[in-house]
Every structure is written in C-alpha cells, then in structure tokens.
Amino acid sequence: MIKEISIKKIATYDSTGVVFSGLKKINFFYGSNGSGKTSLSNAMKNIENFPDCNIDWASQPLKTLVYNQKFVEENFHQDSHIKGIFTLGKESTEIKNEIAEKKRLVDKLDEEIRRLRTNLSNKEEEYNANENEFIEDCWELKRKYDNEFLQAFSGVRNNKMNFMNKCKQSHSLENKLCDLEDLRARSNKLFNGSLVKIQTLQSIKNDELNVACSSRIFQKQIVGKQEVDIAALISRLAISDWVKRGYDHIHKSEGKCPFCQQSLPDGFLNKLEEYFNETYENEMKELANCVKLYMESYDNLETSIQDLMEKEVPYIDKERINQQLEIIRSKNEINLELIEQKQKEPSKKIALVPVDEFVKIINLEIERVNQEILGHNRLVDNRAHEEQLLKDQIWRFIANENLHNHEKYVRKEFNLNFESP
Predict the structure, then answer these.
(1) 156, 163 Cβ separation under 8 angstroms
(2) What are 111's strand-pairing partners?
(3) Strand order in the sheet with 18-20
(4) Residue 49, Cα to own-chain centre: how many angstroms?
(5) pTM for the structure as a whole
(6) How far is Cα 267 from Cα 259, in angstroms, rounded to an integer?
(7) In the chain, fewer beta carbons within 10 Å around the N or the C end?
(8) Distances in Å between the alpha carbon of 218 and those of 214, 288, 347, 348?
(9) pLDDT tens digit string along 64-98?
C-alpha cells in the first residue's frame, strides 16, 4: 500500500509540487481537465523516470497498473485497412507497427536497389567506354614504335588488352627517362648487331711543349759581359745583336771592321772576345736547346692529334678536333716567327703563345668519347642485364609518351569509382 506521494516539476506541477499523504487502500483523485490527474498517473506508473517525484510505500513496492489515455494509445490499435477491427495489447500493437515500418523500409530499399542497378549499368557503360578509349590510345603508340622497339614489345604485340596492361604497369617504373635517339642507338647495338669491345682513347699530352714555351731563356735578354768597358756603350745603343753579327765575321776581316772597313783599334778584338764570353755562349746554347725542345714537342703534339684523327672510332667528333688542330697550327706559326726573331736578336724578349686551352678542348672530346666507349663495353660485358635495362627504359619512354592519355583515363576512372551513387 502507498503511504504518501510527492510530485513536482512535471506538467502542471511546479517546483514546490504537491504531497498526497494519509492515503488508504482505495483513494479517489478528481479534478477538472488540466489539473494534473494524468500526469500523476504517469508518474505513478514509471516513478523512476521522474527524479523529482517520490512514492513512499508502506511495504515493498508493488507492480503499478495504470489505465489512462496513454495506455489506450499503447494497447488498442485499429488496422487502417479494416474498419472496426482492433488489436488489443501493447505487444501486438508494437508488432503491427514494426511490420508496417519494415514494409515501408523494404519498399524504400527496393526502390534504392532499382536506382543503384540503373546507376551501375550506366557506370559500367562509361567504364567500358573509358577502357576501350585507353586501349586504342595505347595501341596507337604500339603502331608508332613497333618497328623500332620490336624486342621490347615482345609478348604483348598481338593483343591490345595485354599491351594496354603493360602500359599501365610502365607508369610505375622509376628508370631514367632516355630520349628517343639514345634508345634507338642502344636498341640497334643490342638487338640488331654484333658487339665487340672498343679500346678507350689516350688523352693528348702537352707537358713537354708547356715546358719549352715557358722556358726562362725566351724572356731573358742575352747580352755580353757587362763589366767590359765597351758594354755600357753597347747597352745604351741597344746594339748587342748588331755587334754580335759583326763579331761573327771579324776573324775573317783581317783587322778591319766588317761594316765600315776601318782598321780596328788595338785590343778591340780582345774586348769583344771578353764581351761575348763563355756565359753568353752558354745562354745561346740554352736557347738552341729550348728551340729544339719546342720543335720536337710540337711535332709530337701534332702527330698525336693526327693519329687520333685517323682512328676508326665511333662517337668521335673529328670535325671538332680538326678545328682545334688548325688553331694549334696557326699558334705554332706565330711561335716559329718569334723564335726566329729571338735567334736573330738574342737580346730581345719573346713570349711564346701557349696552346693549352686548345689541347684541353681536344681532351674533353676524348673524355666524352671514352664515356661512350665505356658504356658500349658495359653492353658487351653484361648484355643480358643491359637488354633488360633497355627494355625497361623503352617502356618508361612509352609511359611518358602516353602520359596525357593515362592521366585522362585515370581521372575518368576515379570519378566513376567515387561519384555519389
């Protein structure tokens, strides 16, 4: 039995609420509409749902049964299709409502399935059209390069689908991207011809010619002994070379000057002999040796370049080398004139023209050719590996040629896969 009921903060009951106490086994609650009778019955049925309300039981709480409008709505259900027929019981009503809801869901799902099937059919058509377009784009590349890359296309040349799949796979290759001419040249070597090793070229040596050109004797004034009393006059007039020419003939002039035919003063010949002493003669010998070294080293240089020009070596740009050789020859003509001048006038300083920069250009060409030769020799040493590498690089080239078509194909496929259904 209930001893007391406290109810507040629901419906018409404010925060102060109402307390019903002194209750008996049977109690009557009556009032006008909206006075709170139904709210009281709802609270009594499920007191746990109303934390501000309370029921004080005289004994253990009992099961509470409430008959009100909510009970009617929950337990009496009229089938919309058959008038006058009611279903009694809350569970039956819930089941009927659940069945109706499930049927609506089934109808909705059926409609969704029909829509998705239609959409799937449309997407399949678009997907196939995209696939067929890409197949033809790939096959067009096969026709374009089939003759040049016959071996690389082996295995997929006779099937459009296989060729297309190979093109797809090639976009993931990370090989170096080579140009068409390089691929053609290597393909001809590996697949169409016999391979033999080629000897690398020796660089052109120019050390001896550099030594000769930079010799100090060319920059030195070769004159007689300065301590002789006639040296000051000879130096002041800068006639050392002229006096030397006369000195070379004086022994045959019978005591007369070779130039003016006047008799030479007593002791003058001794002074000349002292002026053109051993030091002078040694420097003249040094000059002659340097001239000889220059001539020989230049001849060796030109011979080396000519030998290079005569070699039957692929890759070499002989026209470029010949241009440098002609420049070197012209510089040599200048040097020969300077050397001749120095020999005639030892007191003059000369500076020979170096040819280092032109030899360097030739050696750079040799280095380039040697790199080509080393690459060729690697093909010979490791032909199987190089063939596979070349095939991969050819497919990398094809993938790059096909890049625009592939991007268009992937973009359409992505849109088809991720568009809203």
Answers:
(1) yes
(2) none
(3) 18-20, 2-7, 54-57
(4) 70
(5) 0.44
(6) 18
(7) C
(8) 8, 10, 10, 8
(9) 888 777 777 666 666 555 555 555 555 666 777 78
